[in-house]
Amino acid sequence: MVDTKRGVYWTVVGLALFVALVLTFFVRSLTQPRPLYEQDLRSNGFLLERPPRSVPAPDGLSERLVGHWTLVTLGYTRCVDGCPNQLALLATMQRNLAGTAFAQDTQVLVLGIDPEADSSAHLRGYVEAFDPRFLVHRLTSEAGREWAHELGLWYSGGAPGSPPIARSEQVVLLDPQLRVHGAFVPPFESGRFQLTYKGIRAAER
C-alpha cells in the first residue's frame, strides 16, 4: 500500500515537472523573436542585401557606428510629415527594445540634409526631442551627400532658390561592420517594423 502511494506520488511529481517544462518552452517561444529570412522580410517591407554591401563612413563617423546595428534616416527641421513620423516610429522602437538582448547595440542615426537652414544645435534639438539617444550628423559636403546616396538614401533641393527638399523615405540598416544589411521601405507600421527588426537580429545570432 505504501509502495503504491509512493508510486502515485512520484508519477504526479513527474507529470507536474513535465507540464512545467512544456509551459516554460511554450512561454519562451512566445517571448523570443522568431528569425525572419528573405521572403518573410520582403513581405514585411524590408529589402535584404545579400551579401551585405560595405560603405565606408565619412571621417569622424565610423567610430560611432562600428560595433552597432544602426538605423539610418534622412531628416531636417522643416520636414512636415515624413520626418516626424519616422523619428517617432524609431523612438518607439528604441523604448520597446529596453530590457531585450538588442537594446545595447541598436542605435539610430539621423542625417541632416538641410545645412543651409539647420545649424548643428537646431537640428540636434529637433532630433533629441524624439529621443536624446539618437545620433545626428549634418551632411555639409558633396562627400557626405555621396555617402548617403551610396547607402541608398537620396535627396535633392535645400539650397537657396532651389525647389523644396525631396528625400528618400526608407530607413537603411547598417550592421556592426558598417555594411548595408538592407532597408525598410514605407509604408511603416510600428508593430511590424519592430517585429521585423527583431527577426533580422534573431536570424543573425
Key attributes of the depicted protein:
7 helices, single chain, 205 residues, six-stranded mixed β-sheet, 20% strand, alpha/beta
What do you see in this structure?
With 205 residues, this protein is of the alpha/beta class. The protein is 43% helix and 20% strand. The protein has 7 helices and 8 strands. It has a 6-stranded mixed sheet with strand order 1-8-7-2-3-4, sandwiched between helices. The protein has a two-stranded antiparallel ribbon with strand order 5-6. It is globular.
Shape: globular
Indicate the percent of residues in helices: 40-55%
Mean pLDDT across all residues, rounded? Answer: 86
- Kindly report how far apart the N and C termini lie: 54 Å
| Spatial order of the strands forming the largest sheet | 1-8-7-2-3-4
Number of strands: 8
Structure annotation, total helices: 7
| Rg estimate, integer Å | 23 Å
Q: What does the main sheet amount to?
A: 6 strands, mixed
Q: What low-confidence regions span 5 or more consecutive residues with pLDDT below 50?
A: 18-31
Strand fraction band? 15-25%
SSE sequence, one letter per element: HHEHEHEHEHEEEEH
SS-derived structural category:
alpha/beta
Topology:
Layout: H1 2-31, H2 38-43, E1 46-54, H3 62-65, E2 69-75, H4 82-96, E3 106-112, H5 120-128, E4 135-138, H6 142-151, E5 155-156, E6 166-167, E7 171-174, E8 179-184, H7 190-204
Parallel strand pairs: 2-3, 3-4
Antiparallel strand pairs: 1-8, 2-7, 5-6, 7-8
Summarize the structure.
This protein is α/β, with parallel strands linked by helices and 205 residues long.
